[in-house]
Amino acid sequence: MRALQKTLALIAFLILVPQTVRHAYMLWLEPRGSVLDKYDQPMKGQIDAATSLDELLRRYDPVRKQVDSAKKEASEAGKERPSNDEIEPYKSEKMLREAINQWEERAKEIHAIRFYWLVGLVLSVLGLLTYSKLNRWLGVSLLIAGFSELIYWTSPTFLGSTQEFDRLLANKLALSAFSLILLFAVTWLLEIFAEKGEDSSQPRHS
């Protein structure tokens, strides 16, 4: 049991420490963009600087009115709407609409990460209590399930089309750091790395 606990704890540390450092680097230290972006893509810069969905909607509303007006004028003149979305105001309207849709999808992703991390936290706490009060193997099983959730949902985004962004990184960094603190607490409470004999793997009693 002691060897298994040490192995699992070391694996968890080896995952959580690098990914926490990685999130901090991506959020605070990674160089971003180019000084020329404000000339090439001014609207993109405004979108990236938005701090809320309401701010994006305030930017979208006047642009959408320009698009509706342009469509109405084209219809009255018997012309078709330009098919090229690189023409203003259609270009800006498309970028803002996509940004709003993306913001909503990202909000759902953050909600899912927080929910499943809490599930992992509950499983970990139940595992710790079960290990101490009822059965060590059942407790370890719950701890494994709990920390698997904590690690998976705070891990970097490697697969799929989802791009990490500041709000997601901030959530992952905070939750990853909390997971690391919880791991330290569990290893200390269970005396996993204590320099004692095998009997020290027994749960402590007050």
Protein described:
This protein is mostly helical. The chain has one domain (2-201). Helix content is 73%, strand content 0%. It has helices spanning 2-29, 37-40, 42-49, 53-76, 90-133, 136-153, 166-189. Helix 5 runs antiparallel to helix 6 and helix 5 (90-133) packs parallel to helix 7 (166-189). The radius of gyration is 25 Å and the shape is elongated.
Key features of this structure:
206 residues; mainly alpha
Could you outline the blueprint of secondary structure elements for this entry?
Layout: H1 2-29, H2 37-40, H3 42-49, H4 53-76, H5 90-133, H6 136-153, H7 166-189
Q: What number of structural domains do the residues give?
A: 1
Distance between the termini: 22 Å
Detail the poorly predicted runs: 198-202
Number of helical segments with 4 or more residues: 7
* Helical fraction: over 70%
Indicate the overall shape.
Answer: elongated
Give me the count of strands: 0
Biggest sheet character: none
Q: What structural class do helix, strand and pairing data support?
A: mainly alpha
Radius of gyration: 25 Å
Mean pLDDT over the full residue set: 85
Name the beta content range. under 5%
Order of helices and strands: HHHHHHH
